[in-house]
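Re: weekly structure request thread

Next one in the queue (298 aa):
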Amino acid sequence: MKRVVSISLGSSKRDKKVEVEILGEKFILERIGTDGSQEKMIELFKELDGKVDAFGLGGADLYISVGKRRTTLKSIEKLIQYAKITPVCDGQYLKDTLEKKTVFFMRDRGLIDKNTKVLIISGVSRYGSAEGFVEVGCKTLFGDLMFSLGIPIPIYSHKSFLFIASIVVPIARNLPYEWLYPTGKSQEEVIPKYEKYYKWADVIAGDFLYMKRHMPEDLSGKIIFTNTTTLEDREFLKKRGVKLVVTTTPEFDGRTFGTNVMEALICAYTEKRPDELKEEDYYRLIDELNIKPDIIEL
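Done, posted below.
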């Protein structure tokens, strides 16, 4: 049996452990939250290194992207150095493949078209899906300045997004991670903000905790495109009137895990590190391991 452990800077209230069988092989998938403690994350990396088959890196991005060019976040790069044997997966390779594929899955099922308005919470965090929505022809709004940096400026052009990202990313990579993303108990806070942009969108796409952070009370008829969701998350969205949740990863025991967990599963299965697999390998393994999106009606 192979074991995948996602160590997350997020809340321990979202922890989950399941056993699944894929292609006749059993896997334990486990998520352990550190409630924002980088010290506890380091301890867990040290304790479990070499004892599990692959680590997921949860509640944090190791990479952010300007188009196809990846940049590491220094504050996160320092944390994963304590995993010296076991590969660490932040999910970026699946964000560029599985999530992009899910956008076309939505198009093929008539959920989106060139008239669909999409609020992309963070394009630098999930460029694969952002690129997918642009290629479908959707009207896209990039929320990077608003949701990551607190600057109330929407970006309606893909070209403008790439230009602004090329300036901001080299600066952002040096910032403390908690300045960019909610960690620990702050993940439980909801402070409504940017309501008109939520209202404008037909689809709200991105990391669930990022989008939840400023969600308004009324999201009637909206489609949420995301990855990690719990039963409590779905109830939260249902109360706000959300119509559908499209998750880029499959459901296990009432929980969809993040791309970091599924990427770690792929690495455990292949016994390779994430950067040892090519883009075409990921697409092949997504099909081989039957990693499919879910459409959840609320």
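The chain has a mean pLDDT of 91. The radius of gyration is 18 Å.
Next request, please.
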